[in-house]
Amino acid sequence: MDRLTAIEIFVEVARAGSFAAVAERFAMTPAMIGKYIKWLEARVGSRLLNRNTRRQSLTEAGQ
């Protein structure tokens, strides 16, 4: 996966609070957005987002 794209996606999810909204902007599925976030979290070594069914929020590490 492309590191720059993953960072762009993370920033947009942090702003929008939604995988679905960001997926539309990047012409991807919400599942693919989630894969980019998981990939980035694995590289950073920490969870960056608190996920629930309605909204994503930043963890302390994500801030």
TrEMBL record:
Matches recorded under InterPro entries: LysR-type_TF_proteobact-type (IPR058163), LysR_HTH_N (IPR000847), WH-like_DNA-bd_sf (IPR036388), WH_DNA-bd_sf (IPR036390)
GO biological process: DNA-templated transcription
UniProt xrefs under Gene3D superfamilies: Winged helix-like DNA-binding domain superfamily/Winged helix DNA-binding domain
Domain HTH lysR-type: 1-59
Annotated Pfam families: HTH_1 (PF00126)
GO molecular function, one term: sequence-specific DNA binding
PROSITE patterns: HTH_LYSR
Annotated transmembrane regions: none
Protein family (similarity comment): Belongs to the LysR transcriptional regulatory family.
Protein name: Transcriptional regulatory protein
Naturally occurring in which organism (per UniProt): Aeromonas hydrophila subsp. hydrophila (strain ATCC 7966 / DSM 30187 / BCRC 13018 / CCUG 14551 / JCM 1027 / KCTC 2358 / NCIMB 9240 / NCTC 8049)
